Every structure is written in C-alpha cells, then in structure tokens.
Amino acid sequence: MDVSSPTDLRLGTRFADELPELAVRWQAEEAPEPQLVVLNEPLAAELGLDPRWLRSEAGVRLLVGAEVPDGATPVAQGYAGHQFGGYSPRLGDGRALLLGELTDPAGRVRDLHLKGSGRTPWARGGDGLAGLGPMLREHVVSEAMHTLGIPTTRSLAVVATGRGVRREQVLPGAVLARVASSHLRVGSFQYARATGDDDLLRRLADHAIARHHPAARDAGPAGAAYVALLEGVVEAQARLVAQWMLVGFVHGVMNTDNMTISGESIDYGPCAFLDAYDPATVFSSIDEGGRYAYRNQPAAAQWNLARLAEALLPLIDADEERAVETATRSLQGFATTYADAFTADAAAKLGLPAGLDRAVVASLVEDLLALMAAARVDHTSFFRALGDAARGDVEGVRGVVLDLPGLDAWLERWRGLGPDAEAMDRVNPVYIPRNHLVEQALDAATAGDLAPLHRLLEAVTAPYDERPGLAAYAEPGPAGAGPYVTFCGT
Ligand SMILES: Nc1ncnc2c1ncn2[C@@H]1O[C@H](COP(=O)(O)OP(=O)(O)OP(=O)(O)O)[C@@H](O)[C@H]1O
Ligand SMILES: [Mg+2]
User: Fold this and answer.
1) Where in the sequence is the domain holding 302, given as residue range(s)?
2) 200 & 155 share domain
3) Least crowded by CB within 10 Å, which of 70, 102, 315, 482?
4) Which of 183, 212, 244 marks a domain boundary?
5) Is 180 in the pocket of ligand 1 (CB under 6 A)?
6) Which of the listed residues 183, 201, 235 is the one where a domain comes to its end?
C-alpha cells in the first residue's frame, strides 16, 4: 500500500539508537515558501510513497523537513574526513539531516536524508544552506548514474525554500531529499576511531556489516568479520570506480567524507563527465594540484580505503603489527578487483563475447584508449560510434582519430574477435549529462524556466535509446570550455 500521509510513514531510528555518539538530534530550519521543483516519481513508487501525496502541501512539508513523521528522530550525523589530503577531525552534517530509515515494499532499508536543511551543530562557519542549482545538479547526475547502472545515492525531490543563499551572488535556496542505502562514510569510521572508544568503533562496524555486508558476520571468529567488512568495501569501491572510469565520470572531490561504505557514489559537487578523452582532466576549480583528476581516481580510492583500514585496525587484531599486515593484504585486493572489473566492463563496451583471454582484452582496451587520448576524441560518442564500426560503418570512428593506420590495425584485431553491435548499443550511452547542458539547464531553472531541466532529464534517464529530437544532447560541448563547476556555488 502506498504511503499517503505523514502518519502512514514509518521511519526507523536505528542509526540514532545504535550510534548516539554519532547522532545529534536536530531539526530543519523553517523554509519560508517551500515549492516542489522536481519529484522523482519512479523512485517514490519504489519506496512505496504516493507521488500525489508528496506533491501535496503536507508532502512538500515532509520533503523540506518542516514536518517529521511520528516516532522519527532526525539527526545530524558526525564524521571526520581527509579533504584534499588534510585531516579534519570534525566535519559531520553541517547542512544536512538524516530523517530516518525507510523500509521499502521490497524490504530494502534506505536512508531518507535532507541536504541544505539549515545549520546544525557541525556547521562550523557555514550557513547550512544549499543553492537550487547545485541541488538540481545532484538530482540530474545521480539519476543519470542510476540509469547507467552505476551504484549511487538517489534524489527523491528538490524543493526550493524561498530563502536566498548568499554565495558570489544571492541564489535561490533549496533542499534535496536524498535516498541512500546508508550515509556511512569512510569518514564516519575515522571519527569513531579518533574518539579512542573501541566499543563505538565496533558498534559502527557491526551496524555497517548488518546494513551492507551481512555475509561478513559469518566470516569467522575475532577480527575476521571486520576484515571481511574491509574487503567488502574495497571490492564495492573498486567496482564503482571502474564504472566511473568507463563512463568518463570525474567525481571531483573524493575526500574520505565523500566515500561511502555501501559502494554508492555520493556528493555530486564539482563533478562532471569527460567530453574529450584526456586522462589528466580536472573539473573542480579548487583542485589546483589535480589530486582528483580523472586518471587519479583509482589511486585516490585506494588511498581513502587505506584510511578506512587504519580506522579499523583495533577491531582486526589486538596486535597492531598483525593487524597492519592483515589490513594491507585486504587492501591489495583493490588492484585485482579493479583490473578485473575494468576489463570485464570494457569488454562489454567493445561488444566482446564472454570467455576471451583476459590479457587479450586488456591489451586491446589499452591500445584503444591510447588512440582515443592521442586525438582527444569525445569519450561517449566514440564508444557509440564503435557500435556502427561493428556493423561495418567505420566513418564515425575514422573521422575523429588521428593515427588512421593505428586505428585500422586496431579495428581489424577487434573485429576478428566478433563484436556484437546490438550488445554494444545496450551499454554505450548516447546521452550523458554533458557539462554545458547541465549548466544551461541549471541556469534556466534558477531563472524560473524548468523546461531545459526536464528535457535534459528526458535524455539522460533513457541514455541508450537514441531519439532524433534529442540530437543536441549527444553533442560534446564547445572545446576548451570549462571548468564548469566550482565549489563556490554549492
Ligand atoms: N553551507 C554549508 N553550511 C554548513 N556546512 C557545510 C556547508 N557546505 C558544506 N558543509 C559541510 O562541509 C563538509 C564538506 O562539504 P561537502 O561539500 O563535501 O559535503 P556536502 O555536499 O555538504 O554533503 P554530502 O557529502 O552529504 O553530499 C561537510 O561536513 C558539510 O556538511
Ligand atoms: Mg560531502
């Protein structure tokens, strides 16, 4: 049955109850004039929430935090984090609240969370607010990621608050209602570890195991369950980052507080998708050293996971030296899982049959990426054009690569392996949220015109289905433009 009133909605308080040291009870700031800007109806249905109710005044009050269902305990979650390599011991939800855990009709437990809901005790100097544009970016990009089959937090809705947010200019403010399999971060473990309270650390790890890696519980005695937890996170993150790389996604701010334990992508701040394939691409204007450049993402993930391993050491083994040895072995799993996932996903993008020798596929992929990088081809449309090449039409790919003899030799090797063009069309998107289109849609929405946003959503939520009316959405942006995303506007 659909939930159609606040009294029907049951939100769990498991995080608040089990981890009170990480949960500050709090409430959202009043929104002067809440107005629903976008609602994710398919997600609402998946959660058992009646979209008509969510669109009603009472529903919007829930989505903006003005009304809390009976029995719910909204909390601001505590976490620490390494930001661009520097450690901040006390970050936490400075502008966000966990409303509680919702069990969907399929029995899955999901966090319902608000971002931009006002200052909390973790706010430090911040105003606790979020701009409409950045929250809509999170909506668009997370929905695109979801339809591309990439694990991600989701956006249920964006509600404009009617309050101005002072940035470089005054922007309309908004609250994002976010749904995630949890909001546990690497930084949550760093925070618990830094308290020196091993009981808290153990409760947090047990909570994470129960929610995300239940098989770890059966791993064996003593520290084995926590080693299995670490390995579970390492594996989930290795697979996730392999998917980012193959779709050309640059997260932009892979701090340890922006890396989940679930393996879902989180926090779409200064993120963007590659147009030209250049592995050195950096989008965030504050990432001056290029720490989170596209090509550095696997290494950044490994670095973050090493911070998770450090936090878990007291649970892994009472003997620190043995704990370090064990954790190091677990971290080494990243390289293998990443390489396997990357090769398997790349083989699918190339339409290759299953069962080919891994080394053959890996060298084929490597050689193709080198050809693509040398000519800075458009990442997304090139892979799509390869589907045409599998059907015998090589004009699209030959038209953009510089080293034609090299490409022809590569095409011959590849075609000899029998690529399946239809299978390629099912995994190589036509539409991704191109940066220039995202910017246009957000600018228009900020000025009150939602049509470009809806058109963009129409394109990116059916990314493999080429439609003639959406040709402009498949085109790369103007060369040399950007970086489009900065931190200042969030
Ligand atoms: N305007 C703000 N007011 C208060 N705190 C803020 C503000 N902006 C960011 N923060 C806090 O700064 C830290 C880093 O911010 P970051 O942009 O990574 O996270 P976020 O986008 O707010 O949230 P999330 O990671 O949940 O998506 C977080 O602790 C966040 O709560
Ligand atoms: Mg963040």
Assistant:
1) 187-347
2) no
3) 70
4) 183
5) no
6) 183
Q: Is the CB of 126 under 6 A from ligand 1?
A: yes
Pairing of strands 272-273, 35-39: unpaired
Nearest to 144 by CA among 463, 464, 469, 485: 463
Rg (CA), the chain: 23
Rounded distance between C-alpha atoms, residue 218 and residue 224, angstroms: 9
**pLDDT > 90: percent of the chain:** 93
Are 117 and 63 found together in one domain?
yes
Task: Let me know if 167 is exposed, middle or buried by CB neighbors in 10 A (0-12, 13-18, 19+).
Answer: middle
- Same domain flag for 168 and 194: no
Q: Is 111 a residue of the active site?
A: no
Within a domain: residue 145?
A: yes
Is 128 labeled as ligand-binding?
yes
Overall number of domains in the chain: 2
Distance 127 CA to ligand 2 centre (A): 15
Work out the mean pLDDT of the chain and round it to a whole number.
95
Give the model's pLDDT for residue 1: 53
Same domain as 270, residue 139: no
Closest approach atom of ligand 1 to CA 253:
18
* Residue found by looking up tokens 């709090």 in the block: 26
Given the residues 93, 257, 275, 378, select the one marked as catalytic.
Answer: 257
Residue 169 burial (CB count, 10 A): 11
- Ligand nearest to the CA of residue 79, numbered in listed order: 1
Question: CB–CB of 366/406 below 8 Å?
Answer: no
Write out the two tokens for 291. Answer: 């720490």
Say if 423 falls within a structural domain: no
Full-model pTM: 0.97
Asked, for residue 399, whether it belongs to a domain, the answer is: no
144, 249: one domain: no
Whether 94 lines ligand 1, by a CB cut-off of 6 Å, is yes
